[in-house]
Design goal:
The complex is a heterodimer of chains A (about 280) and B (about 325).
Chain A (H helix, E strand, L loop, with lengths): L10 H18 L1 H10 L3 H5 L12 H10 L3 H32 L5 H13 L3 H13 L6 H25 L3 H9 L4 H12 L1 H16 L3 H6 L8 H11 L4 H21 L1 H8 L6
Chain B lengths: L8 H41 L2 E2 L7 E2 L3 H7 L8 H17 L2 H12 L6 H9 L6 H11 L6 H8 L15 H26 L3 H9 L4 H12 L1 H17 L2 H6 L11 H9 L7 H32 L2
Antiparallel strand pairs in B: 1-2
The chains are: A mainly alpha (about 280), B mainly alpha (about 325).
Chain lengths: ~280, ~325
């Protein structure tokens, strides 16, 4: 193990490590802690210039209550949910199929198609922006959730295919051969043999895509406008203009907007990290 | 065996015989069509649109290289000042964003221990990556508030006063935004290295120790070579992240002050959906230039992956 386990070091080192850990963490999360403190402060603290001192009164319920009951925030959150969940389902479904096709079969153009998916993923969004916006407008899907969902599914399929295909290639191929010898139809091999084995990959991709799509801002402002369709990342700017310079409200709103992916992360941490670090070990 | 499909027996026979050759294509068609419509074809369309003057609604007017001449200052024109700023800022982003890799490695080495509660520490250090860039941007813009922001307060202890605050001063604004971007990116690199460190071969480490390798020499000659895959991925995601940087700039400064924080991706968006009428053609031309800048990196990444792929066959 590297570095040397702290247990094999002198006691003084062990103690200082234990002391250093929480200090480092607090410094690392300082900007976030500041916002959390902002979000429970009353209005008057900012007017008096008490930005960083203790809150003069505890306004957690008041501030967050206003976020939920006196703003468009709940609508934005719902929009985000209705955009994110179908995208996750669509991208995972499409990519488990492509992953199966590219991971199991040997045919001409296999690697080429695989690399087309990977390459599309690296492309800067901006080169897609004008044509995709135009396409969405022509399909009468501008400013609809569906328009945003369709694009997200298509784009995420690239990354998901890379992931699924590599995962399927690592599965024991003998399982598939055995089934073929038994005369099982190919689509049944996919459905009854490969798909059940892909559960960890599906879980990992689901949390990853959920986070990516929930946090998307660029496409949200390119393809939607207004509180009826915009997800929370875009809505937060409208929210902030409603509460201009009311830092306690803006902070509370930001925290609410950030919570769902954070919640997902802590819930499915193992899968999330497995997905994110795919390929970082040989 | 009962027939699965309702097709004619003749078709069924043909399908049966060619099943292994046909199935992959059946599985690929929906995704390939989708991906082609929304990703591959638009790349070509952007090239085409970049040769036109277009407001996004009416007819396109073909103007050949006109947009590029105006953008890059070809012929007797001067280079678009906004393009110049954006380009240099993109370079700053590229170079400084790479700091996330050594920083991430440093934190990973710091946290790669087995003491009580370390798992929670690791997750909390990783936390910034999970939050949307919009929220991170907002958080940092409050952190940087002139006079009242925590950063300005801390700086004043050292007697440093940045006029107009970090984000209000054209000299510091871009660096302030990059620092905000480094926060989640470092967390990402950290998690890549933590996973990598987990799979470092303990025997090689022991052998290194017996040979008297310690500290930095051990890291450089024994550990880092084993972390190569992690470093490669960290490099890929950081470069792409740097060139894609848009959210932070849109949220924190909206390109200001005086346009000093624009990067190509933001500049492109601004021109295409400009308040003074959409300039889609010009925007597409900027996107094409950005694409070519990225192409070098993309080609390198793909070549590496292709190489690994060939080896593993």
């Amino acid at each position: 193990m590297f570095p040397t386990p702290i247990q094999n070091r002198p006691l003084a080192n062990q103690v200082s490590y234990q002391v250093l850990l929480p200090i480092a963490l607090i410094l690392w999360l300082l900007p976030l802690l500041a916002v959390m403190i902002f979000s429970i402060k009353p209005d008057v603290d900012f007017a008096k210039g008490n930005y960083w001192g203790l809150p003069s009164s505890f306004e957690l319920f008041n501030n967050y209550g206003r976020v939920f009951f006196a703003s468009d925030m709940p609508q934005y959150l719902l929009n985000s949910l209705f955009i994110t969940v179908p995208t996750v389902i669509g991208a995972v479904a499409l990519s488990s199929m492509t992953g199966f096709a590219l991971g199991v079969y040997k045919f001409r153009g296999n690697l080429l198609i695989f690399f087309m998916f990977i390459a599309g993923n690296f492309v800067p969004f901006q080169i897609l922006m004008v044509p995709v916006r135009d396409l969405t407008v022509n399909l009468n899907l501008y400013d609809t959730k569906l328009g945003l969902i369709l694009f997200h599914i298509a784009f995420q399929t690239g990354f998901c295919t890379l992931f699924m295909r590599n995962f399927i290639r690592a599965l024991p191929y003998s399982l598939i051969e055995a089934a073929r010898v038994e005369g099982v139809a190919e689509w049944k091999i996919f459905l009854y043999i490969v798909l059940p084995l892909m559960k960890p990959a599906i879980a990992a991709l689901s949390v990853l895509i959920f986070t990516f799509i929930w946090n998307d801002y660029f496409w949200a402002i390119v393809l939607t406008q207004g509180p009826d369709t915009q997800p929370v990342t875009a809505g937060i700017t409208a929210f902030n203009s409603q509460y201009r310079a009311a830092y306690h409200m803006m902070s509370a709103g930001s925290i609410v907007a950030a919570i769902p992916p954070v919640f997902m992360f802590f819930l499915m941490q193992k899968h999330f990290i497995a997905g994110l670090t795919l390929g970082s070990v040989k | 065996m009962p027939s699965d499909s309702t097709g004619s027996p003749k078709f069924n026979n043909w399908y049966r015989r060619n099943e292994i050759a046909i199935t992959p294509w059946l599985f690929l068609i929906p995704a390939v069509l989708f991906f082609a419509t929304y990703v591959i074809v638009p790349i070509g369309q952007s090239f085409w649109i970049s040769f036109h003057m277009w407001d996004g609604l009416g007819e396109k007017t073909f103007i050949g290289m006109g947009n590029y001449e105006r953008l890059l200052g070809l012929g007797d024109q001067k280079m678009d000042r906004k393009f110049e700023t954006s380009f240099w800022n993109n370079l700053k982003w590229l170079v400084l964003y790479l700091l996330a890799i050594p920083l991430g490695l440093f934190i990973a080495l710091f946290l790669n221990q087995t003491v009580a509660g370390i798992r929670l520490y690791k997750s909390l250090f990783f936390f910034p990556f999970v939050i949307s860039q919009v929220v991170v941007g907002l958080v940092f813009s409050w952190f940087y508030l002139p006079n009242d922001g925590l950063f300005d307060v801390l700086m004043s202890w050292f007697g440093i006063d940045i006029r107009g605050g970090v984000l209000g001063n054209p000299k510091t604004a871009t660096y302030g935004i990059i620092a905000a971007g480094l926060w989640p990116q470092t967390a990402y690199c950290m998690i890549l290295y933590l996973t990598g460190l987990n799979s470092v071969d303990p025997e090689q480490v022991e052998a290194g120790r017996l040979d008297g390798a310690k500290g930095f020499r051990m890291l450089w000659y024994v550990i880092l070579p084993q972390l190569r895959p992690a470093t490669f991925i960290a490099f890929v995601v950081t470069i792409i992240g740097a060139l894609r940087s848009f959210d932070f700039i849109a949220v924190m400064t909206n390109g200001g002050p005086f346009g000093s924080t624009r990067v190509l991706s933001f500049f492109m968006f601004e021109e295409s959906l400009s308040e003074f009428g959409f300039r889609m053609g010009y925007g597409a031309a900027i996107a094409v230039v950005l694409f070519f800048i990225m192409l070098g990196f993309i080609a390198y990444f793909l070549f590496q992956m292709w190489h690994d792929e060939k080896e593993s066959r």
